Amino acid sequence: MISIKSLAHLYDKGRRISFPDWEIAEMEQWLLLGASGSGKSTLLNIISGLLKPSKGEVLINHTDLYTLSARKMDQFRGRHIGIVFQRPHLIRSLNVLDNLDLAAVMAGLPVDEAHNLSLLDNLHIADLAHAFPDELSQGQLQRVSVARALVNRPDLLIADEPTSSLDDENANQVIQMLTSQAKDNGAALVIATHDQRVRNHISKTYLL
Ligand code: ADP
Ligand code: MG
User: Fold this and answer.
1) I want to staple 73 with a disulfide (CB 3.0 to 4.6 A). Which of 68, 117, 184, 189 is the partner?
2) 39 CA from centroid of ligand 2 (Å)
3) CA 58, 59, 64, 68 torsion-angle sign
């Protein structure tokens, strides 16, 4: 479903980062492991179409991502990839459900409010549908971020360091939530982390 080949990136003033080839099949669950600064976020940005690599290619369902126009790329990302960022990026002036609806609109897809409500329900935050981001706890915000990442029924769900600021119990819950939501929604999963606690939950690992 997704493969990266001969990929490398060089930031303007940085060192060159090379990425081993990687194939992610449908619904597989992977950990992207590496020390801080090893290039995990860089790779996720490249796979998501947010950062053009200096070298190599990213194929998603046989489409070479970096041959697409900027507009097509945005659409493609919106439809195939759901991203849970390190810090939730929600629009503060919109309530939770409107934030979810917006994710569909941005990808040029029709709003499926029943689907969006069921995502909130599955994540046990249906009662927060009309709350605003400022009214939510960090844990609730993270759940909303996961729901929003799943709005467009992505083939791949990506989470960048989702547990780094959490205690053991909450870290466990977040990993359970991500693995089960990816499975229930038919998406592959990649979790980037340097958190050793996460290693027990997912068997496939890609090491940087
Ligand atoms: P990780 O997510 O594994 O901590 P990153 O992908 O964030 O690693 O960073 C990899 C390397 O690239 C680091 O040395 C970092 O300083 C550098 N880097 C990251 N982003 C930029 C940037 N926008 N410009 C220049 N260097 C960067
Ligand atoms: Mg990072």
Assistant:
1) 68
2) 7
3) negative
Per-residue confidence in pLDDT tens, the chain, 208 aa = 899 999 999 998 888 999 999 999 999 999 999 999 999 999 999 998 889 999 999 998 888 999 988 888 888 888 889 999 877 789 999 999 999 999 999 888 999 999 999 999 999 999 999 999 999 998 899 899 999 999 999 999 999 998 887 788 888 888 888 999 999 999 999 999 988 788 777 889 999 9
* Cα 154 to averaged position of ligand 2 atoms, centre (Å): 22
Angle at 106 between CA 100 and CA 111, to 5 degrees: 50
pTM above 0.85, yes or no: yes
For 26-52+82-207, the fitting CATH number among 2.120.10.30, 3.90.1720.10, 3.40.350.10, 3.40.50.300 is 3.40.50.300
Say if ligand 1 is within 6 A of residue 207 CB. Answer: no
Gap between the Cα atoms of 94 and 82, Å rounded: 20
Q: Indicate whether residue 139 lines ligand 1 (CB < 6 A).
A: no
